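To close the chapter, one final illustration. This time we ask the reader to focus less on the individual chains and more on the assembly as a whole: which components sit near each other, and how the overall shape emerges from the parts.
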Amino acid sequence: MAPVLITSPHAHSARSTAGMMLKVLLATVPGILVLTYFFGFGTLVNILWACVVALTCESLALALRRRPLLFYLGDYSALVTATLIGIALPPYSSWWLIAIGTGSAILLAKHLYGGLGYNPFNPAMVGYVILLISFPVQMTSWALPQGPEELPGLIEALKACFAPAHYDGTTMATPLDLLKQNNSLPVDELWVENQQFGRWAGLGWEWVNIAFLGGGLWLLWQRVFTWHAPVTMLVALALMASLFYDGGSAASGGSPLFHLLSGATMLGAFFIVTDPVTSAVSLRGRLVYGTLIGVLIYVIRVWGNYPDAMAFAVLIMNFAAPFIDHFTQPRTYGHRDKPENR
Amino acid sequence: MADTDYKMLTRSGLWKNNPAIVQLLGLCPLLAVTGSVVNAIGLAIATTFVLVGSGAAVSAVRQVLSDAIRLPVFVMIIAAAVTCIELLMQAFAYELYQILGIFLPLITTNCIILGRAESFASRNPMIPAIYDGFIMGIGFSLVLILLGGLREVIGTGVLFADMDLLFGPSAADWEWVLVESYQPFLLAILPPGAFIFAGLIIAVKNLIDIRIEKRRDRLRQKPVKGARRVRVTGKIS
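The assembled structure is written out below.
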């Protein structure tokens, strides 16, 4: 009996899309728990409602495109998109805000381009940006963190989402927003005057970011993505912040630690920049891709119009990813670096 | 071309070769000013006027024009027509003229107009040229108004706002509030919304075309089943 011939590649475990997506979902759990601890049940309600909308839209799009429903729903990619949107939106958002964002993410950014694997832009970020430029008021008011005031309970959170007219919540600017609007106080005094600031970054925010960092490191250990893009992004952001931070004058952009641990930095670095579909493919390309996102985040945060810049920076670099790939093609084995007759 | 097929011209201008959603010409004004129905109608009237006027003039001078200088002449004719409509708008709809701003003079550079002058008006007699300009203008206008209406409704929840800018003070109460206390959806009014909605309109148009094509295929005479080649080997009687 002849031995069975197996050709290369000889990888032993086939990695399914569903498995990767489940790991990503699992890695967001610590961040979501910390968000819930500091800002109440708003984030959880956001995520659950976004998941419902995402699954509905995904089924609708699949039915319209006559694709097998269960096969594509089973890759959990819609759930990952919905979870990221739910985390990114302010807690206690209204149901229609979440529905518009998630719906446009799934229908416009994903299925109009041909579904998972064909989308040039990160669906979650497209949904977020559509909301941010359409409803700036709702999108830039974040819930109060625990400490200054009592957190709303679960019933209150549900009411805020599904009966926004009867919900009377208090919101305030995020630390990034405050720093952006401040142009008279030195950074030190700003921190003393505003209760939103915590030890290093913002009350609650620093722990949220550390939790996402933990989830991201676990994903890295599980080899869901390579280190190139997230690490270069964080290094570039820290470098930019240290270059332009002058110790705390009024126009100063905040310390490097503040930028690393505030807003969506860690969520973006490990869950959005690493999206295998929309990022650059080659390893050298990912270094460039991550670096430029880090630089763009700082530029838009400090000199741009919007307080947080994750979504814009990622979308701009999604545009550039094919271009980066073109110039960072790895050398084919057995070929010279630059063939003479190309 | 002695006898022009007006029916074909109509079909081509309105649907088969629609300047806005098939040729994709003149996208700049199409996307920039369709934030509301009144803007769209204003630009639609202006563009149709220029198309008809320049079509007539180009057709009139086509016999005396040498090939080498035809393009500058076309552009001057178009610019003259644009100047006319600009002055008319200043006289009769000044507020709208201010809202449309740079997009009125920019009609001169609209590719639809130069395209029709080059490909139709300079090769045909005057009456068909005028008709072609008119029907192309209508085709463009319909898309403009549809896009303007969609963006206005989705963006602000109101239809036909500020119609008095174009139709006089009696049109001020044409405004039709579809949804009370609507949360403005800024994306629809901003330029990216124009791209998205124009894309959706084109998609719907293509979908309808595919449906029509399928139905035509179904109606076409099918070959009769059972008509096989006659087997001639064997017994012949």
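The CA atoms of residues 165 and 177 of chain A lie 26 Å apart. Residues 16-172 of chain A form one domain. With these observations in hand, you are ready for the problems at the end of the chapter.
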